[in-house]
Every structure is written in structure tokens, then in C-alpha cells.
Design goal:
The chain is α+β, with helices and mostly antiparallel strands. The chain has three helices and six strands. Strands 1-4-3-2 form a four-stranded antiparallel sheet, covered by helices on one side.
């Protein structure tokens, strides 16, 4: 079975979403003329028995490189995805899914995290601050460069046919 074949069909979906951590330190940000920088992080684990891929997406907002370890805002959200036959798609720590699915999982995780972040910031001085829109493909490239590169090469070969 070629796990990257576009024609492969299997069931998958969102099983659960939960906030793992959230912190905001309004005292660290008193000058709104200073733009906040953003950094993303991720980790994933899986529960083979229940066919769940747990993708934790995190975002931190900070003022400069010196404060990256002391963020103004930080959030981590666990996104639990049901993936049919997950145990057949794992080998040790490696999970093999069709390449476009990784971009979909990143995109959904970003959306869920942004939604929860907006709710959590509603009672803070950041309530009216815009949360930047980000391209999930750019984030997926940063997290999984080989997968996205393979997708780009495949798209080029299709366009060239």
C-alpha cells in the first residue's frame, strides 16, 4: 500500500480539541508601538489502540529575542485526530500519512488554536488586538520541509504533463 497515493481512501476526523496551557503577562507589554513577534511549535504523539494522532500546536508572542523565553502570550492546544488504521501507518516514531494530510492537520490545528486564543484573550488588554492570519502551508513547510517539498515537486510534475 502506497501511503502517499492521492487515490488512497480512509476515514479520518477531529476527535477532540483541548487547551493544554495558556499564559498571558500583560505587564510585559506596555508599549503598543513595539510589534509582537510570533513563534510556533508543535509536537505529536499517538494512541494506536484508539487510532488517535495527538497534534499539539503552540504559539508564543514575545517582544524581542531576549524575551522569547518569557512570552507575553503563550498557548498550546491539543488536537486529537482519528485516523483509520493508524497502527498500519506507524513505524516507531514515524507516522506515514498522505503528504497533503499533514498540511490539513496543521491547518486545522492553527484554526483551533487561534479560536481558543481569541476566547482566552477576550478578558485581557489584548482583546482588540488583531491575531495575524498565517498561511498553513508556510507553517507546514517549517515543521515538515521534506513532505511539503515532495508535494511541490509532485505539483510541478502534474503541471508539466
Amino acid at each position: 500500500m502506497d501511503k502517499n497515493k492521492p487515490s488512497e481512501s480512509f476515514q479520518y476526523g477531529i476527535k477532540g480539541i483541548k487547551m493544554i496551557s495558556f499564559s498571558v503577562n500583560e505587564d510585559l507589554y506596555n508599549d503598543e508601538s513595539i510589534p509582537l513577534k510570533v513563534q510556533f511549535r508543535y509536537r505529536f504523539t499517538y494512541d494506536l489502540e484508539n487510532e488517535i494522532l495527538k497534534f499539539v500546536f503552540g504559539t508564543i508572542y514575545y517582544t524581542d529575542e531576549l524575551t522569547v523565553n518569557k512570552p507575553v502570550v503563550s498557548i498550546d492546544v491539543e488536537n486529537d485526530f482519528y485516523i483509520e488504521n493508524l497502527k498500519d501507518r506507524t513505524n516507531g516514531d514515524i507516522v506515514t500519512l498522505p503528504d497533503p494530510m499533514w498540511v490539513t492537520l496543521v491547518s486545522l490545528s492553527i484554526t483551533h488554536t487561534r479560536s481558543i486564543l481569541a476566547i482566552m484573550l477576550a478578558a485581557t488588554k489584548f482583546k482588540d488586538r488583531l491575531i495575524p492570519i498565517i498561511n498553513p502551508l508556510d507553517v507546514a513547510k517549517a515543521f515538515f520541509p521534506d513532505i511539503v517539498r515532495n508535494m511541490e515537486l509532485a505539483a510541478q510534475s502534474i503541471e508539466g504533463e
